[in-house]
TrEMBL record:
Keywords: Heme, Iron, Membrane, Metal-binding, Monooxygenase, Oxidoreductase, Transmembrane, Transmembrane helix. One of its GO terms (molecular function) is heme binding. Its cofactor is heme. This is Cytochrome P450. The keyword Membrane applies. It comes from Cerrena zonata.
């Protein structure tokens, strides 16, 4: 009993007090964390040292008891009925710690995991101690296009030394000023300016592929090479020459993939990131990626440009802004632009080809449409002709519906200083992180029916009758097709800045490939393996899609 009063009780009382402090004030700063997690047990060890046989046993016993009681209190509170999110269902590990979602992120299948949770628990699921995922079309706009909600802690990794990239900017007025520059550089008018670069990249790709007609070709990898080459041109006016060299010779693609994967894991527990940065050698890949992005941007700035590119506008080289934009900020955008623009479009193009390979009848219909509109060999420079390809549009939309390249729910946060917020009929307490799980919503039969989980591009065509893949004919009254919830480029102020460019690139690549080649799965390759191997790391990581090509011209 004596030991209890002299040793156990003070430690338990201290951990209860610190737990209360964490609950109310959520301190995450370096000094407060060191004080609360190390300083207090160290001071207790010093004061209680006489109750132990040695200093070592005092330190280990006090630290063990202090930390374990703190962790137990936190876990019990999070699963208790006193927690503000107690009424929302979800699996136990999600309620206890975001560490669980870090593990799911490391497993790379968060899109399927969260989709499964929605199937089990319904439209709202607690996916973290302090986080809700929504699967309801009516809640997309209130979450993603609502100035009361800002980007959540998932995006904290996009800020370093007080400088955020565009997609990590939480202040809406600062974001609007920076987004204006991006919109100048990537707006609809710029697609014409970038067309020459695109035609060059696509022609080079077609040339290389036509030399490989008797080989097994990983079209997924080739589309990545082309995607990076095109981004190099339009962002920095540089040639990465990946298609020319037939290889990711500088390791840039690998670096982007590794960085997004690591960031996706860390972003679940983003409070840890500032500490990692202080450890020499830790988060090395992320630091390297940032450095390379800044170096490329700096090089571009020093060279100036002979032609228009994104940096022409990010650096405001024409002096269109009343106040010159901050160079420090502009230089931070380099790597974001590469990450946001390269693999996303390559993924959208590869996914579409995958669905076409899986549905040869759809592929034949699409090839017929393309070859009627673009009779010449691989000629794609007139992108106004893309409007004459409704079935291509339907196939791309259907692919983006089932497999949007950004697979993760986009996180926002209810203002911690507010009194909470109603999202539809759900009350969401202040400080809660929320996301709309577009992957699940876009596969929901309430919005797309029949065959919500099936690649059936006809649903995107306007007609009175539809023939299902089974041969059954349905009238348009039996079709549910809610375009409002089809948002692969997100919505609101922080929607995709590169949508116009992506749409042009995607169409150009698919038209050129399907016009020039007959494409079949490589012998012995199970096409379904491609989809099974898709990994959610916020954007998509893809495995190979092995094909055989035969030129038709
Ligand atoms: C099919 C291809 C693409 C898809 C599906 C796509 C999708 C998205 C999505 C869903 C977001 C919102 C991300 C979030 O809130 O976390 C986004 C943001 C963004 N995207 Fe794209 N994207 C594509 C291509 C591109 C291209 C080619 C660029 C050009 C470089 C680009 C630049 C950006 C930028 C800069 C943002 C951040 C915008 C902001 O925060 O204001 N994207 N994209």
């Amino acid at each position: 009993m004596d030991a209890y009063y002299t040793f156990v009780l003070p430690i338990l009382m201290s951990s209860v007090a610190v737990w209360q402090l964490y609950n109310r004030l959520e301190p995450t700063g370096f000094v407060s964390s060191v004080t609360l997690l190390l300083g207090i047990p160290a001071a207790l060890s010093y004061h209680l040292a006489l109750a132990f046989s040695s200093t070592w046993s005092a330190v280990t016993s006090v630290f063990l008891l202090y930390w374990s009681s703190l962790v137990t209190l936190i876990a019990l509170y999070r699963i208790s009925s006193f927690h503000p999110l107690a009424r929302y269902p979800g699996p136990l590990p999600c309620k206890i710690s975001k560490g669980w979602m870090s593990y799911i992120a490391a497993r790379k299948d968060m899109h399927r995991y969260v989709n499964g949770l929605h199937a089990k628990y319904g439209d709202v699921v607690r996916i973290g101690p302090n986080e809700l995922s929504f699967r309801h079309g009516d809640l997309i706009e209130p979450i993603l296009a609502n100035k009361d909600l800002r980007k959540g802690p998932y995006y904290n990794l996009r800020t370093r030394d007080g400088v955020s990239s565009i997609d990590g900017t939480k202040d809406y007025s600062e974001h609007a000023a920076r987004r204006r520059l991006w919109d100048r550089g990537l707006g609809a008018a710029m697609t014409k300016v970038y067309m020459d670069s695109l035609v060059n990249v696509v022609s080079e790709l077609m040339q290389k592929l036509s030399n490989r007609q008797n080989e097994v070709v990983d079209i997924s990898q080739w589309l990545s090479l082309a995607g990076f080459d095109f981004m190099g041109k339009i962002i920095f006016s540089v040639s990465f020459d990946m298609v020319k060299n037939e290889h990711d010779h500088n390791g840039l693609i690998k670096l982007v993939q590794k960085t997004t994967y690591i960031c996706h894991i860390l972003a679940q527990i983003s409070w840890i990131y500032p500490y990692l940065l202080k450890i020499p050698g830790a988060a090395g890949t992320v630091k390297t990626a940032r450095r390379i992005g800044v170096e490329m941007a700096e090089k571009r700035k020093n060279l100036g440009s002979n032609s228009y590119d994104l940096y022409h506008y990010l650096l405001d080289e024409e002096g269109l802004e009343k106040v010159k934009p901050s160079e420090r900020f502009a230089l931070r955008e380099g790597f974001v632009a590469i990450i946001a623009g390269s693999e996303t479009t390559a993924t959208a193009a590869t996914n579409t080809l995958y669905f076409l390979l899986k549905h040869p009848d759809v592929k034949r219909r699409l090839q017929k449409e393309i070859r009627e509109v673009f009779p010449e060999n691989g000629e794609i420079s007139d992108c106004t002709k893309f409007n004459e390809l409704p079935f291509l549009n339907a196939c791309i939309n259907e692919s983006l519906r089932l497999l949007p390249p950004g697979l993760t729910g986009l996180q926002r946060q209810v203002d911690p200083r507010s009194g909470g917020k109603m999202l539809g009929s759900y009350f969401v307490p202040a400080g809660t992180n929320v996301s709309a799980h577009l992957y699940s919503i876009q596969r929901d039969p309430r919005y797309f029916s029949p065959l919500a989980d099936t690649f059936w591009p006809d649903r995107w065509l306007s007609q009175d009758h539809y023939t299902l893949p089974s041969g059954e004919v349905i009238t348009k009254d039996n079709l549910i097709h809610n375009r409002d919830v089809f948002l692969p480029f997100s919505t609101g102020q922080q929607n995709c800045a590169g949508k116009n460019v992506a749409n042009m690139e995607l169409r150009s690549l698919l038209v050129a490939l399907l016009n020039q080649f007959d494409i079949e799965p490589a012998e012995g390759f199970r096409v379904g393996d491609y989809e099974e191997g898709l990994a959610d790391v916020y954007v998509t990581l893809r495995g190979p899609l092995y094909v055989q090509l035969r030129s038709v011209h």
